[in-house]
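Quick start: load a record and inspect it. Here is Penicillin-binding protein activator LpoB:
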Amino acid sequence: MVRVLSMAVLATALLLTGCASKVDYGDAQARETVTTDFGSTDLQMIAAKMVDDMMVFPPVVDMTRDRRPVMFVDRVKNKTSEHIDTESITDTIQSKLINSGKFRFVDMSVVDRVREQLEYQQDSGMVDQSTAAQMGRQVGAEFMLYGNLSSIVKRDDSTKDVYYKFTLKLLNIQSGIIEWSGEKEIRKTRKRSLFGL
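Running the structure step on this input writes:
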């Protein structure tokens, strides 16, 4: 009985060792083509295209020649059937625009926490008023970036085709005029082999 139990434990250990997986680091910029789902390569292509297009658009070049306009990023609407973290796309676009040295951003996602901190500094009696941030001194945004991500999926018995379209717009808050708009289209196709692999 002990021998049978020992053999079962050894067999289980061998089976688990044989199923062990190996994890390696890869190049975060490398093309990722595992599935037709939205992935890291798509995010990187969209961000690069949007920033490159905006930075060479003549009116944007003119408005950023002598100053750094202030903008905020609104949530991008995900109109696909996939769960896609669109905030990752706008975070990457925002980082690229800030690092260009041409724009400044206000972060509307933290307004409530900033308000709490300002109230604490002003009303708690615990902050030296000579160093406290003052209410009503924040800079207002001049422009808003917003957009949509949509997709069209077609399939038959052997092929799946996914078309993504990302649209981003730059709105002048004062005038309501769209100053710039950009689009990036991506098509991904997956064909199933004859044997279903």
